[in-house]
TrEMBL record, chain A:
It comes from Paenibacillus sabinae T27. Keywords: 4Fe-4S, Gluconeogenesis, Iron, Iron-sulfur, Lyase, Metal-binding. It is an enzyme of class 4 (lyase). The keyword Methyltransferase does not apply. Pathway: Carbohydrate biosynthesis; gluconeogenesis. This is L-serine dehydratase. InterPro entries: Fe-S_L-Ser, Ser_deHydtase-like_asu, Ser_deHydtase_asu.
From TrEMBL, chain B:
One of its GO terms (biological process) is gluconeogenesis. It catalyses: L-serine = pyruvate + NH4(+). The lineage of its organism: Bacteria, Bacillati, Bacillota, Bacilli, Bacillales. Its cofactor is [4Fe-4S] cluster. PANTHER family: L-SERINE DEHYDRATASE, L-SERINE DEHYDRATASE, BETA CHAIN-RELATED. Pathway: Carbohydrate biosynthesis; gluconeogenesis. Gene3D superfamilies: 3.30.70.260, D-3-phosphoglycerate dehydrogenase, domain 3 (3.30.1330.90). Belongs to the iron-sulfur dependent L-serine dehydratase family. This is L-serine deaminase. Residues 148-220 form the ACT domain. One of its GO terms (molecular function) is L-serine ammonia-lyase activity. It comes from Paenibacillus sabinae T27.
């Protein structure tokens, strides 16, 4: 790839007078040696999988094998439909969809890792709810996924995207940054604004530990996907309004690396600390152990 | 760069719940299946580290079984793969390993087929990305992201030159290459990661080279549907 930082990414897009999404498609095709139509088709197919995951999460039984989670997306969906929700329509929809995909993941359904399975709800939550609202077609959304991928590529190579390495900030935080930047571009923001959205979003998840109860991608992962989708919308709005990430986004990514590296092992997906080691977390773990023995 | 392209960030398409524990494990199993060249009759799966601690909750065992059945990461049969494997006659067992291991998510597979056996150690490094680090006690380093050729041969002067010359004539570019040997003039394994799949005639040319015992391919093709099944291995 011809860029290693978000700054370079924005400059390159500006220079070539293309969107970040279109730039990433070009770069991907050069890297793989496959025609860009094929790479585009693959990403579009991935978007189809995301849509299907939202549908399944909103309509089918998503109770996980552990029995710990499931059906929260439908609870939120029903609440949104019948009440004046606090968030209001569009953000409420993003929340419900993000929970839906994350619950499909926990129940061993088909999803797209974006960037990981633990954070797979955020981008579909943001993308599908906004597609419905703004009437974009699937091609537009596919370019959006390339934009999200470009941002994730920079984060992954300069810091990390997995909870085991850098805590939940790396996993859910990266997905929020990717969704925020991509949405900013989809709404007509400049590459520079998209990059500011990434920094604004990432700053809000710095320090977030990875503490899955029982080691499972369920508690608190699913609800963090829901929160993440809403945060991405807020970050995109700030960037589109002209709010800048005063600490440049590339520097925020470096901070994430520093914070993640300093995190004790018990807060990095080991279930050795945080929510996993609360009295209730420990009891759930013990119950799961008993279940397995039977 | 640890992550090389957009689809290592957006993707893979997979069955949940964990890209490391499920998608990565399925890819490791599938690489092993392709190397063995058939469904294993007996499979001993040994989990280490985080894999050992949480494989039941994450379906890591199901993912490995699915991979051994040559299922891609998004195959909806993955949650039932252990039952499917047993129905198809695979004797598969899982246990927690003891001792040192190279990565928090490590699995070692001991497989036997109708004629041959295979041992393989793989690590799942995040986001569904994997590395195979050991095959039949040879150290290797392969990601499964590219079409991969594994050449069992005798450690013998000029083998590599004739291999790379075959690739040059076939106009196939090599992205990464490694060689390990048991001892001087002994058994050796060369691994090549390629930019594209080998044509059958090139494969035959490699097999015919002096000192080459066998050539095997791994191709975890997960690209769009029209390409699926093309250039598959063994």
């Amino acid at each position: 790839m011809n860029f290693q930082t978000l700054n370079q990414l924005a400059d390159l897009a500006q220079e070539r007078a293309v969107s970040i999404g279109a730039l990433m498609l070009e770069e991907q095709s050069a890297e793989s040696g496959r025609p860009s139509e094929r790479e585009f088709a693959k990403m579009k197919e991935y978007y189809g999988v995301m849509k299907e995951a939202v549908r399944r999460g909103m309509e089918t039984d998503t109770t996980s094998r552990s029995g710990l989670t499931g059906l929260d997306a439908q609870r939120v969906g029903a609440y949104n439909a019948g009440n004046e929700s606090c968030l209001g329509g569009p953000a409420g929809q993003a929340l419900a969809y993000a929970l839906a995909v994350s619950e499909v993941n926990a129940s061993m359904g088909r999803i797209i890792a974006t960037p990981t399975a633990g954070s797979c709800g955020i981008i579909p939550g943001v993308f599908l709810s906004c597609q419905e609202r703004f009437g974009w077609d699937d091609d537009v959304m596919t370019y959006g996924l390339f934009a999200a991928g470009a941002i994730g590529y920079v984060i992954a190579n300069n810091s990390f995207v997995s909870g085991a390495e850098g805590g939940c900030q790396a996993e859910v935080g990266s997905a929020i940054g990717m969704a925020a930047g991509a949405l900013t571009e989809l709404r007509g923001g400049t590459p520079a604004q998209a990059v500011h959205a990434v920094g604004l979003a990432l700053k809000n998840s710095l320090g977030l530990i990875c503490d899955p109860v029982g080691g499972l991608v369920e508690i608190p992962c699913i609800v963090r996907n829901g929160f993440g989708a809403v945060t991405a919308l807020a970050a995109a709005d700030m960037a589109l309004a002209g709010v800048r990430s005063v600490i440049p986004s590339d520097e925020v990514i470096k901070v994430m690396l520093e914070v993640g590296a300093a995190m004790p092992e018990k807060h990095r997906e080991t279930a050795g600390g945080g929510l996993a080691q609360t009295p209730t977390g420990r009891k759930i773990m013990e119950d799961l152990r008993q279940q397995r023995r039977q | 760069m640890r992550f090389k392209d957009v689809f290592s960030i957006i993707g893979p398409a997979m069955v949940g719940p964990s890209s490391s524990h499920t998608a990565g494990a399925a890819r490791i199993g599938r690489a092993a299946r392709q190397l063995l060249g058939e469904m294993p009759l007996k499979a001993e799966v040994i989990f280490y580290g985080s894999f050992a601690a949480t494989y039941q909750g994450h379906g890591t065992d199901r993912a490995i079984a699915g991979g051994l059945l040559d299922f891609p990461t998004d195959d909806l049969r993955l949650p039932d793969s252990i039952e499917i494997a047993e129905r198809e006659g695979m004797d598969i067992s899982f246990r927690q390993g003891a001792g040192l291991f190279p990565h928090p998510n490590t699995v070692r597979l001991c497989l036997s087929g109708s004629g041959q056996g295979l041992t393989l150690t793989g690590i799942s490094i995040g986001g569904g990305n994997i590395e195979i680090i050991e095959i039949d006690e040879f150290s290797v380093k392969l990601s499964g992201m590219y079409p991969t050729v594994l050449i069992h041969h005798r450690d013998y002067l000029g083998v590599l030159a004739s291999v790379t010359d075959t690739m040059r004539r076939g106009r196939v570019n090599i992205g990464h290459m490694s060689l390990d040997r048991k001892h001087r003039s002994g058994a050796a394994l060369t691994v090549l990661e390629l930019d594209e799949m080998l044509a059958p005639e090139l494969l035959r040319e490699l097999e015919a080279l002096p000192a080459v015992q066998s050539v095997k391919l791994i191709h975890l093709d997960e690209s769009p549907k029209e390409e699926k099944g093309k250039g598959k291995t063994s």
